[in-house]
Amino acid sequence: MRLLVAALCVLWLPFEASAVDLLNGRLINKRCALCHGTFGQGAPGPNSPRIAGLPKDYLIEILNDFISGKRDSEAMVMASGLNSLTEQDIHDVAAYLSEIDLRNDPRFVIPAASGDAEAGETLFMGECRRGCHQRDGYGTPRKGVPPLAGQHTAYLVYSIKGFQARERVHDDDPEDPTFDPLSDSQIADLVAFVSSLDTPTAPRYAELPEIELQTVMAPTTRTAIRIDDVVQTVARIPLQWGVDRQDAIKAMSRRAAELDMKMIGRQDVSDDLAKQGITVPYMAIFQYCDAFESSEIVANNPTFAAYMPCRIALVEDAEGQDWLVMMNLDMLVNHRLVEGQRATAVIRANQQLLEIMIAGATGEEP
User: Fold this and answer.
1) Where along the chain do its domains lie?
2) What is the spatial distance between Cα 130 and Cα 132, in angstroms, rounded to a whole number?
């Protein structure tokens, strides 16, 4: 990713703060990028939707819902440090993400979904277009209506199911019946049509909002997950109070098994050195691998085999604090070393490792 020197965009906020700080939003988004990608492009599945280009007010509402517990995702709260964000922080990251326009970018095209797109078009034009998502599916930003075009299909299905079960609120109406009559096949048809709206008509490459390079090197926001270095090569998180090393190791093993990430190696570095009479701070390295994801990434370029298998280290710092540390694979996307579907594979692998690391930090039960 190119970091260009430019003045920050100034937008007045409706609360007593100064102005939107896109640099601060960029720094906060480094945590979001662990699961959603540097460009906010998301990944297939229900857990990493596309967040780039969503209306600022809509993003603010979503973030506040997660902070209040109205919507629940422990991994998201931990990774982004939502509970530590100020109102200013929320507005900053929402403004930053809302300015990323991925339309017509061939790297981030959503694959066509199975289903009858023609039947889905009838459903869309009868309900979704009339409901402010517009004929092209890109929503109405000034009304806070999010785009559907460009959103990952599995997430759209997950959302519709949530609306039907009243686990999610549609159109600010807890009892909105819009999707109640839809069968599973009709939902598939609707999503198939929406996925067809993401076809690039005039290909272009999206750019991130422009920021000042030097100021990026002085982060101002504290969050649970910390990204080290300007190129965000490393992610780390401390073990929470009351979680000992064995708790963390067991929790990581359980979560890895749930994600079908096989632990193919473990090296107890400090213990091995202790057997030789050498005392060093605690360090152990755990290696995980998803054969399919790894092959997808390496297929892009054999040199990426250096990142496989994916490693998480448990290390003790000089103050006696234990940390879990991993390589942030999103940098491969960040610097356009991988694109398209292989970029999606990188984000998925990154998210799986992040979930394993958070499980270890919290000592959570499955």
Assistant:
1) 22-106, 111-196, 225-362
2) 5
Given a contact cutoff of 8 angstroms between Cβ atoms, the answer to whether 223 and 93 are in contact is: no
**Rounded-to-integer distance, Cα 76 and Cα 140, Å:** 26
Q: What is the mean pLDDT of residues 177-189?
A: 90
- The predicted-structure confidence for 12-70, as pLDDT tens digits, reads as follows 334 444 577 888 888 888 888 877 888 898 887 788 899 999 999 999 999 998 888 88
Give per-residue pLDDT as tens, 251-282: 999 999 988 888 888 999 999 999 999 999 99
Give the CATH H-level superfamily of domain 225-362: TT1751-like domain (3.30.310.70)
Non-local (6+) Cβ contacts of 214 within 8 A are none
CA–CA separation, 103 and 206 (whole Å): 8
314: β partners: 284, 324
For the sheet containing 283-289, what is the strand order?
Answer: 226-228, 234-238, 322-327, 310-316, 283-289, 262-267
- Dist CA 78 CA 41 (whole Å): 20
Same CATH topology for 22-106 and 111-196? yes
d(CA 161, CA 157): 6
- Third-level CATH fold of 22-106: Cytochrome Bc1 Complex; Chain D, domain 2 (1.10.760)
- pLDDT tens-digit readout, 30-40: 888 877 888 89
CATH architecture classification, 111-196: Orthogonal Bundle (1.10)
Rounded CA-CA distance 264/1 in Å is 32
- Taking only the tens place, the pLDDT of each residue in 84-120 is 889 999 999 999 999 999 988 888 888 888 889 899 8
Q: Distance (Å, rounded) from C-alpha 192 to C-alpha 122?
A: 12
